[in-house]
Design a protein that fits this description.
This protein is mostly helical and about 90 residues long. The protein has a single domain, classed as Aldolase class I (TIM Barrel, Alpha-Beta Barrel). A two-stranded parallel sheet has the order 1-2. Strand 1, helix 3 and strand 2 form a beta-alpha-beta unit.
Length: about 90
């Protein structure tokens, strides 16, 4: 989807009462990109590694959704890293 359409959809959805976040994707149509995250600032869909999470944290993301959450947390633990370091 073109970025201008993503921005427009986000603007419309943000006006709806009770909406807490906008999901970046399901992961079925490809991974969430860093450019998408810059637009939306929350990530769900296609997040598979601790390295991706680190990059998203650097972009200011504070909400993640992933079917691989346990594996990602284990990656952080194995590396001796904590979420707050990023």
């Amino acid at each position: 989807m073109p970025f201008d359409e993503i921005v427009k959809i986000c603007e419309i959805i943000a006006e709806i009462e009770g909406v807490d976040y906008i999901k970046t994707g399901s992961g079925f149509s490809g991974p969430t990109t860093y450019d998408h995250v810059n637009l939306i600032q929350k990530v769900a869909g296609g997040v598979r590694t601790a390295e991706q999470v680190k990059m998203f944290l650097k972009l200011g993301v504070n909400l993640f959704g992933s079917s691989r959450a346990i594996e990602i947390i284990e990656e952080f633990k194995k590396g001796g890293e904590e979420w707050v370091n990023f």
